[in-house]
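S.,

As promised, the heme C run. Input:
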Amino acid sequence: MNKLLLSCLLLGAFAVIVCGAPLAASAADEQQPAAAPTADDGKAVFEKQCTSCHKAVRVEKYNGSAPWKTVVSRMIKKNGAKIDENTAAQVVTYLDKTYPKK
Ligand code: HEC
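Predicted complex:
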């Protein structure tokens, strides 16, 4: 029981470290790769996560006024995309850079 509690605490601390200091990439090696939201990571995420329900072209051609952050969070909240916060940040970084809003 105590061991379980300890593991939970450790896991919690790990999550805080990973989320709070995305540049400490080596800490992310344990389970979840890619903690730092760089555009390169975002590209891979985009190709994998944003093409499962619709084609990439839907995103590439999108020129609505909503910022990417809003679009991505809509995909998650309304459309049910299974993307965690960290990954969403990566993909938003990528989209902002690749398809900047005017
Ligand atoms: C679970 C399925 C799903 C996933 C995964 C998904 N989308 Fe979507 N997406 C939809 C649906 C459904 C629509 C059409 C309804 C809407 O616009 O909300 C859509 C529409 C869009 C549109 C067009 C919006 C418009 O107003 O014309 C954009 C841009 C978009 N998605 C971007 C993304 C990006 C970026 C990702 C990856 C982070 C993503 N989607 C992942 C389901 C998904």
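DSSP finds five helices and no strands in the chain. Residues 2-20 form the longest helix (19 residues).

- D.
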